[in-house]
Amino acid sequence: MKRALKIMGIVVAVVAFWALYRAYALPPIGPMGEVIDPEEEVLTSLIIANGVSIVNSNRTGGEYRRDGHPKSQGCALATFRVNSLDWPYRQGVFAEAKSYKAWIRFSNGNPTVQSDWLPDARGMAIKVLGVLGEKLLDGEENAHTQDFVMMNSDVFLIDNVRDYAAFTSLQVQGYQQHSQLTQFRYFFQDAAGSVWNPLAWRLRELRETFGILKWPPKNLLATQYYSIAPYTLGVQNYVKYSARPVACSPQEPVPGSWEWSLSSEVLYEDMVRQINSGRKFCFDLMIQPQIQQKNMPVEDATIEWKESDSPFLPVARIEIPKQNIREVENSNFCENLSFSPWHALPQHRPVGGLNRIRKAVYQGISQYRHCKNGVATGEPLDDGSPVLESSVCNANQPFPGSAKN
């Protein structure tokens, strides 16, 4: 009996040691360039189908919402002022020092519209207006917008397209079983779906997930946001983006904590109050260049590009002036906006598996929810009016990027 207990104790100790090692060991060295899974097109179709199921499961008052970041915390009209930059940073929208108008959408990440007090990721999506030049997104090449999509974490919880398909399948299963905890099985199973192999558990990714699901909520105008996935800058350079809150002037420092409240809408209510207060709020949009000698992979979004290896460089200033964002929110303009990393000039081409699936998934889900809501699709006017240049929604059009039969 004592021997059996001793053996069991050794096994438990080995498993515990392995769990700690997997969770806190240095991340693996990832590929510095793009590596495309030969089955990526089929996997993307599965992810789109899962996204549609999530949209159908999370209808709110009969309205079909986004499969990710469905809860808006407000849309604000901002000035996007490009800095005077040195070469090789003068690329695409950063080619010359000039000002644009931009719409900024703040959001909660969970696919379910839930209380702001629950642990969640927070998003900041920027749509720069009046950007001329052919864009990358299929069917929207003539759009005058350049998007930057970010969240308040510098890493993601999934490192490749195959795993993303597995994770979204578990999300769908969770909604069918009325349990959001089902998706956490992803971290405790191997590629075949078995949970009986602790050596295959994704414990580092689980640790990153708890870093992403931040609690309690923070002032969204005092939060730093990251693109997570990389982009080209020009032809050969890879960069990531970040938006860091900065003081607009000595008289308008970075805002502090939000106005404390037990309301489930505390972040939205605080956003409305702050932006209507009469002061301005500013962010620096920054780039972080990839350094070839460091572990700064393109394909694995779970690996942080350390700022100590490659500091962020400011390329543009975002300024949000006083306005009543409640009016825009009530008009449904914000809800009908669509953001995609592929609303982009070729100089800012999204790279890596996470970004490649976003091309078809974001556009396909946007098309689906707009059609189901009976709303036309389109991009905003160059002058910042809360109006979309609409086109007729075609519900029978195949999803962009879906696999061919």
Amino- and carboxy-terminal Cα gap = 61 Å
Main sheet properties: 9 strands, antiparallel
**What is the string of helix and strand elements?**
HHEEEEHHEEEHEEHHHEE
Going by CATH, what is the homologous superfamily?
Catalase core domain
Number of helices: 8
CATH class descriptor:
Mainly Beta
Rg on CA atoms, Å: 22 Å
Domain count: the total is: 1
What would the CATH topology be?
Catalase HpII,  Chain A, domain 1
Average pLDDT level: 89
**Percent helix:** 25-40%
Computed structural class: alpha+beta
CATH architecture: Beta Barrel
For this entry, give a set of tags:
single chain; 405 residues; alpha+beta; Catalase HpII,  Chain A, domain 1; two-stranded antiparallel sheet; 8 helices; disordered C terminus
Question: What would you say about this model in short?
Answer:
By secondary structure, the protein is α+β, with helices and mostly antiparallel strands. The protein has one domain: Catalase core domain (Catalase HpII,  Chain A, domain 1, Beta Barrel), CATH 2.40.180. Helices cover 26% and strands 19% of the residues.
